[in-house]
Each structure stands twice: as C-alpha cells, then as structure tokens.
Amino acid sequence: MTKRLLVTGSSGLIGSEVATHFHDQGWAVHGIDNNQRAVFFGPAGDTRWNQERMLSALPRFSHHEIDIRDREGVLRLIADLLPDAIVHTAAQPSHDRAAAIPFDDFDTNAVGTLNLLEAARRSVKESPFVHMSTNKVYGDAPNELALVELATRFDYADPAWRDGIPESFRIDQSKHSLFGASKVAADVMVQEYGRYFAMPTCCLRGGCLTGPAHCGVELHGFLSYLVKCNLEGRHYNVYGYKGKQVRDNIHAHDVARFIEAFIAAPRSGEVYNLGGGRANSCSILEAFDRVEQLSGRKMAWSYVEANREGDHICYISDLAKIQAHYPHWRLDKSLDDIFTEIVRGWSER
C-alpha cells in the first residue's frame, strides 16, 4: 500500500521540497496550503505558482486549501487521510512582520501547531511528526557570546564555540521577537507531545533555510531576496552590524533528506539544530561578493544603523548532535551550489 505524507505549507520553500522529495520516493503526498504568505507579505510572497507547478508535475500530489488555524478542518482532514507521517512547515515566518500582526502570528505558529499535534494524537499517534522550528527560539542570547570582528564578518572569539550553537543553548531570558516567542511555544509543545504522549516528534531548529524555490522578500528569506535584488537591480538595505552578521545556509534539499532519515528512524520529543554549519556560513558582505561574481552586476545597497530587533550577529548551527543520531546524513549542497541554484532559479522564474 502506498504510504501517505501530509505536508503543511506545501507551496512554500521547505514544504514543496519535502513534497517533491517524498513523491519521488513513491509516497502519495497531501499538501495543506492557503497561500498565507501572500497575505503576510503581499504579491511578492505569493506561492500559487509553486502549487500549480506541483499539481502539474507530481501525479500523486493532492492539494488541500485549509488554514491550519481551522481546528475542525485540521482534525477532520487528518482523521480522513490517516497519514503515515506529518511534516509541518507552515508558519508566519518573519520576526519583523510578527510585531504588526501578533494575533495572526501566534494563532498560526503556536495554535496551528497545537491543532495539528492534537489531530495527530487522536488519529495517527504512531506516525512521525516533524516540525520546522527556528533558531529564533534561542532569541538574541547567542549575541552574548564574545565575538571578534574580521574584515568581512563577525566570528566567535572562543574556539570552544567554533562549531556553533548546540541544542543545549538556553531559549529563555532573551529577546526573541514575537515571532520567536510564538515559535518557542510551538517548539515546546511538539517536544511535550513527544514526551508526554510518547509520540515520534522532532523540532528542527533551522538556520537559514534556502533554495531556488524560495519566494524571498525583504522581511523573510535573506539569501533569496538578496539575489533577487542583485539580478533585478533593486536597492538592498543592510540593517546594522556593518553587514558582517553571519548566517549558516542550508539548501531545502538537505532539509528534506534529513526529514526522510528521521521518518525512517524516528525518536520521541527530539530537538535538532539544522543548518549549513560553518562550511555553509557567510555574512551579508560575503554574500554580496558571491552574487556579484555570478551575475556580473554590482550590488546596490545602503546601510541602516539600527539592527533588527532580536537579530543574531553571528549564528552557526552546531551539527554534532544531528550527525551523531543520524550518521548517514550529511550536507549534499555546498554554499557554491546554493548561490548558483538561487541565481539560476530567479533568472528562470
């Protein structure tokens, strides 16, 4: 019998990558998406093109126009489908936007996640449940680490932190943004359903998740939006930290591959930092240089002194735990691959 996967946020970057990956493995994939990204970010965030692409390219993909805040709709769908695994990628993803829409942010990120967890507990308790969390659950506490300023980036001063932030790093007593706080609520609830109800759940605290299918906008999708600005000759604003703030970048393909590994050998109530690690890290200034080399166009940008609230100065995901638990998983896509594919993706789109 064909296995069934339910993916929320299926028209988005990670959701569509997961849907395609599992479809290629022979699964029947059911996607939940109601294009809220366009509501949150306007026409630039519209993902209908991706929904239509999947419906035409993936014969075992079915689309469900459901808002995860619709509790009865979510309960009913999961009871009807009885999926063999659930991957939850739907979210309000911007910490800047959350401040303007706090109810929508919390209801989507926290309450929507609870709706899915309870629906899973009632109908498919044994099915693995993977939640796309965020490194923003650590708030700005990583900024308390001593840093050194180099020519094009900040870096950790203490060699003990060279491999980045581990899962044991604290998540409270810091500024998260309202987005980070709503994602903390979801993250802890996913852990609790795993531990309290012995369900196979995990939280993936993503670094900078990216790829050619990303509909990057100024308030979310740093690398995709940066490349888009370069290719279209748009002006790009750098907010604080001299443009030397560092992110570790992971391709959506590698995220989907790890989710496959977890579903094949699930654990209960686990937490993993999932990013590109040091090898795939870059600052904004370094990203400018990389995209300019690929496109042949200079970056048009200006500097805004004030940094974003709760923003990380230097964030690199420590991948030691995830690789210890799943030693056969490794990053396939290098930073060069990521930049090349995003440039190609925007150029073709």
Describe this protein's structure:
It contains twelve helices and 14 strands. By secondary structure, it is of the alpha/beta class. The protein has one domain: Rossmann fold (3-Layer(aba) Sandwich). The strands form four sheets. The protein has a seven-stranded parallel sheet with strand order 3-2-1-4-5-8-12, with helices on both faces. It has a three-stranded mixed sheet with strand order 9-11-13. The protein has a two-stranded antiparallel ribbon with strand order 6-7. A hairpin with a 4-residue loop joins strand 6 and strand 7. The longest helix has 22 residues. It is globular and about 55 Å long. The two termini are 37 Å apart.
Which SSEs are present, and which pair or pack?
Elements: E1 4-8, H1 13-24, E2 28-32, H2 36-41, H3 48-57, E3 61-64, H4 71-81, E4 85-88, H5 95-98, H6 102-123, E5 129-134, E6 147-149, E7 154-156, H7 177-196, E8 201-206, E9 208-210, H8 222-232, E10 235-239, E11 246-251, H9 252-264, E12 270-274, E13 281-283, H10 284-295, E14 300-304, H11 320-325, H12 335-348
Parallel strand pairs: 1-2, 1-4, 2-3, 4-5, 5-8, 8-12, 9-11, 10-14
Antiparallel strand pairs: 6-7, 11-13
Helix pairs in contact: 1-9, 4-6, 6-7, 8-10, 8-12, 10-12
